[in-house]
């Protein structure tokens, strides 16, 4: 009987430890997800402010396909003052999203400038 009681204590202890381990993992995962979402939101906002729409449209208009190539290659500096005191996970998510978002905006605005030039040149040719 004493042996059966010790086995039951073992299983009860094992179940309690598994519950605590699962609960702790869920809390950590939620915190990491919140950090990721906050970093992405901040990076998208800062990328909107960092990319100059007019400059990239003029680059696409004047440079045509070469201006579009410049938009694909050029990477603006990440604003380091926004990253002071942040966790390494936040910095990683922020940097990746900032690069992705700025490159997308640059290419978009450069492509609209290139398309505007092409439409203008075509209309000039027609007249």
For the biggest sheet, the summary is: none
> How many DSSP E strands?
0
Number of continuous helical runs: 4
Classify the helix fraction into a percent range.
Answer: over 70%
Radius of gyration: 27 Å
Specify the overall morphology: elongated
Low-confidence stretches: none
**Alpha-beta content class:** mainly alpha
Percent strand: under 5%
Order of helices and strands: HHHH
For the termini, the CA-CA separation is 103 Å
Average pLDDT over all residues:
83
Describe the structure.
The chain is an all-alpha fold. It has helices spanning 2-50, 53-63, 65-73, 88-126. Helix 3 (65-73) packs antiparallel against helix 4. The longest helix has 49 residues, at 2-50. The mean pLDDT is 83.
Describe this structure in a few short sentences.
This protein has helices spanning 2-50, 53-63, 65-73, 88-126.
Topology:
Blueprint: H1 2-50, H2 53-63, H3 65-73, H4 88-126
Features:
127 residues; mainly alpha; elongated
